[in-house]
Fold this sequence. Notes:
alpha/beta, six-stranded parallel beta sheet, globular
Amino acid sequence: MRATIIHGPGDIRVEDRDYPTIIRSTDAVVRVTASCVCGSDLWPYRGVRPTKEPKAIGHEFVGVVESVGDDVRDLAVGDFVIAPFVDSCGTCPQCLNGVTVACDHLAGWGSTDEHGDFLQGGQGEAVRVPQADGTLRRVDGVTEPDAALTASLLTLSDVMSTGHHAAVSANVGPGSTVVVVGDGAVGLCGVLAAKRLGAERIIAMSRHADRQALAREFGATDIVAERGDEGVAKVRELLGGVLADSVLECVGTKESMDQALRSTRPGGHLGFVGVPAGGPELPIGVLFAKNITVGGGMAPAHTYIPELLKDVLAGTINPGRVFDVEMPLEDAAEAYRAMDERRAIKVLLKP
Length: 351
């Protein structure tokens, strides 16, 4: 089969690899119908995170179950499924508490499972999924989704669930005032999540016209292009002299965290979901003085998918709009370039 392999900074290749097979009785093999490039994939692409040897990459995919092990109970051949960005057993204390990203038997796509067996990356033609019952989410009543529905279902594997996690962690609710720091796919989904949860005023911090337009489509009431002191002053002006009840940090740099904290009112909440890069650190003194509550981290997508899936299937939300470019899998290298150069918000890859 064909699969995307990262060899080093700026070096993405699509190569031949063995087609996956069932190894253990709890496995499933999924034929990938759509995958994508994530903003976090750009950290190794840019060399921010080292790539010590060539490895499979990609952690977001949807597809059709091709085969299942003898002990798989909740899935059948032909099911259309969403794969969260990590696998999880579904039965350990962490999974039972809803924090599936801290599963005792956790593994990530493109790495190895707890038994040392290889897991394919999501940017390929097929993936062996260990702990299939605990990992995959079946989409009942859907076998061949059209392009628009496929895109929205794919966002549930990561970016929409992550945007939702930011909003939940920031205590967004009816009547909230919200600032979203970051206008990538996660930030835009954060805008959509805040709107879905009933926020009254949503300020998207963005300097790019195409992303500003989509943010408004998703529910942003205001756009702030300024940064630093000017950005904080603009937020305060828009909110009548106060700062935001809830702030979503969707980038993961020291600068974005600083912007987010300075945009949060005393007693407010900050939800962070940006993959840490560049040493963002929390200033305890500021949190102490302003009584800011900070929460977030990796989103437990498996836990969030059921409630978000209902709205996607009902057409209430359409997070697939974050995919502004679609490319064949063979063009994965160009997909990375397009996102790295900000010529695309998020690229959907079709095997």
